[in-house]
Amino acid sequence: MEFLHSGNGLLKFLIDSGYMIFDTEYMFIGEPTTETEVLFEISETEIALSTNAKAWFGYKRKSWGDFKQEFYELKRTIGLVQTNLVCINKKQLSEFVSILPYLNTSAREE
Q: For 14, phi and psi rounded to 5 degrees?
């Protein structure tokens, strides 16, 4: 699920419905700064968008305190655009975890 900081209660609904939520890479507009390199492990830089803007991707280095509040703040201050969330029903969590070693981590390169 693409997450752009929607205030519609979707995250609360998923959590209340028994889903475990995992984040993936985060997308930013601009270029990484010293501040962002402390918060995120940079995975890809200098992505050219169709708008001629530059973008970059990174993984959060530490856990979120208050995901929605921090996400909004990073959107406002350092150009955070979005992330994709993987939502797994807790009933299927062990099955999901069992396939993780088989996932291709280089899918973006294809």
A: -65, -45
- The single-letter DSSP state of residue 51 is T
Q: Please answer whether residues 79 and 29 qualify as being in contact, where contact means their C-beta atoms are separated by less than 8 angstroms.
A: yes
With b for 16 or more beta-carbon neighbours within 10 A and e for fewer, the 51-88 pattern comes to eeeebbbbebeeeeeebeeebeebbeebbbbebebeeb
Q: How far apart are CA 95 and CA 82, in angstroms?
A: 27
pTM exceeding the 0.90 threshold for the entire prediction: no
CB proximity list for 42: less than 8 A, separation 6 or greater = 32, 36, 56, 57, 58
Tens of pLDDT along 26-65? Answer: 999 999 999 899 999 999 998 989 998 999 999 999 988 8
Measured in whole angstroms, how far is the alpha carbon of residue 40 from the centre of its chain? 11
Host H or E run for residue 8: none
